[in-house]
Amino acid sequence: MTAAPRDVDILPTPPMLPGLSQTSSMLEWQQDHAGFFQRAYEQLGPVFGVQLGPQQGTVLVGPRYHEFFFKEVDNRLSVPEQYRFVVPMFGEVALAATDTATRRRHVALMQSAFQGRRLSRYTEQAADETEQWLDSLGANGRFDLWNALEGLAMRIAASTLLGPEVRARIDDFRPLLADLARGMDFVLPPDLPLPKFVRRDRARRLLTEMIQPVLAERRRRSDTSPDFLQTLIDDPGVGDEGDDVLVGMALMTIFTGYITTCAQLAWALVLLLQHPAYLESVIAEVDAARTPAAPGSPPASTRPAVGGDRVPPDARLPRLEWALKEAIRLRPVMSHYARYNRTDIELDGYRLPAGWLTMLCPSVAHRLPELFTDPDRYDPERFSPGRAEDRRHPYALIGFSGGFYRCPGSAFGMNEMRVVIASLLARFDLVAPAVEPLPSFDMGVTRPTSPCIIEYRTRN
Length: 460
Ligand code: HEM
Description:
alpha+beta; CATH 1.10.630.10; 2 domains; five-stranded mixed beta sheet; three-stranded antiparallel beta sheet; 12 strands; binds protoporphyrin IX containing FE
């Protein structure tokens, strides 16, 4: 794929969509990220250039290019330059840390934090939070999808990641996290005096002020809480870097965990409700996994959070898992992944200039017919063992990114989505939204726009 550096300067840069100015291409992208990339791919092929505001980049589509992208990271492709937009939110932590050893240490710590017994405990907590939410809904009614799931995802993130002290103050915490989300911008310089950036900076300050006393109290008590905040406090590496880094990592993890999971969960639920035949098969699977309620127990809507006929948080629900993967395939929540070219790179006859971005676009890549049969069709069984279309290439399904910087919370995100949907289906009959929800990009992820009303009633 590559050639000696001396040949590179004579090569053309990748083709761009004709007739688009800096502003018009930016506007088209802002209105519909996936549609913009799809249009460019259809007109220009698997290697094309884009101009997003002042930044130029190359989008690569297809598993061979995905492999190149993930393998070149921390080599010719660099991470932190592209993650400058998170520095005002969390400081120079994780993917935004400029020092490679520090960045890898932060990511490795997160990778180890969301596995094994800790992961099981977090999943159980997610199930308890979900039952509490369901108990609050009554026997029937309606909820706005994003509003309801955002609240739930934040409560889950708060209790599992930051612990009971922050969970108790969730109502103060929630609008601040939402302000952080709305202040996320991949393109504009992060220090412009815009109202959304002013609110972002205020949110970070107030969130930090909330977490710092918790830290101090935990240290005073030599606490052994099982949440992620305690994992950070106990880690000798992060411990040495000071409280700013520790609080920044805590905020970054809770923020990233809540917003992506919530958006992906919302799409997964909508898609499932829109496909009643497949939904029936998932409900049957969920019912088979339910622990029977004790004889004479009260109706589901009035049962306490613990006990009753709950779906065990660790239940194996393959049909639901395939539906989650299908939602990740059809509605990936990240519009693209970007890395910064440290040097000129030659790729299949093109020059990707130093200073440009190199990008992947999961929404386009997930609809390649050579990987996914009848790719526009909702067909979760494509992930069943006999078909396993995602195994056609190790980088076919990239909704959690890939390589060393692949999402460290992917297993937790999958478990959380599974327990929320299984618990909802176990308790309620749900009605699909009357109109197809349009995607919204206002919070840094692709999510269903509100209002998107879901009706529910207790199952017989
Ligand atoms: C369905 C849910 C989720 C999806 C689709 C998702 C997706 C992603 C993706 C695509 C990336 C990498 C972006 C890149 O390569 O540039 C990422 C990074 C990350 N994810 Fe997830 N994620 C999910 C859930 C979670 C959860 C539950 C957590 C934490 C508990 C989490 C924590 C992180 C962190 C800490 C990073 C690194 C971000 C940074 O350093 O700025 N994610 N995620």
